[in-house]
Amino acid sequence: MSGLSPVEVKWSKIGLAVSAILGVVFTLYLRTAHSNKTVTVTRHGKKVKELLPISDSYLLLGAILLVFCVVGGLGLQRRKRTLLVFSFFVIGFSFTLIFAPLGFAIIILGGWLMLRAYRIQKFGTPTAKLAAREAAARPPRRERKKIAATPVKPSGYKPPTANKRYTPKAAPRKKVAKPVD
Questions:
Q1: What are the CA-CA distances from residue 128 to residues 86, 118, 171 (Å)?
Q2: Residue-wise pLDDT tens digits, 95-131
Q3: Total domains present in the chain
Q4: How many C-beta atoms surround the C-beta of residue 18 within 10 A?
Q5: Alpha-carbon distance 120 to 129, whole Å?
Q6: Is the Cβ–Cβ distance between 62 and 98 less than 8 Å?
Q7: Range of the domain at 55
């Protein structure tokens, strides 16, 4: 769905900026907090401190966050609501691995944009007050179904006229004689 209101643009800019900044911060935090972990291990009767290996999955997570922040920025620039909502959902789900409340807040922002899109499609307005007025002005669903189910009969209905085209009768078939044995 295309088109964003100024309120949606403002909240989307805030959401994307916070996501990009915290994506970089959390990536750097994961790198520094978990890269220098040491573990005491007993080897041949001696206690030895070893560096705990950590995978580089935090870099992948940070890259995904930044890529989808850029995708969301492109959707915001082109005023494409669907692209923006998709990027908010992916960013939110990736943040739930690190900091769940922030991830859920970003998912809720995407859900809010989808709710407004639904209201625009159904009622023609994104606000709840105007949508409620539109819904109250509509006839109940039973009446709408009844009206749709009744066949529409035109006022000047005429039965079809006879076809005036002449088709001559076909010639009778010739009888084929049966062979005599």
A1: 23, 11, 76
A2: 887 789 999 999 999 999 998 888 888 877 777 777 7
A3: 1
A4: 16
A5: 13
A6: no
A7: 6-137
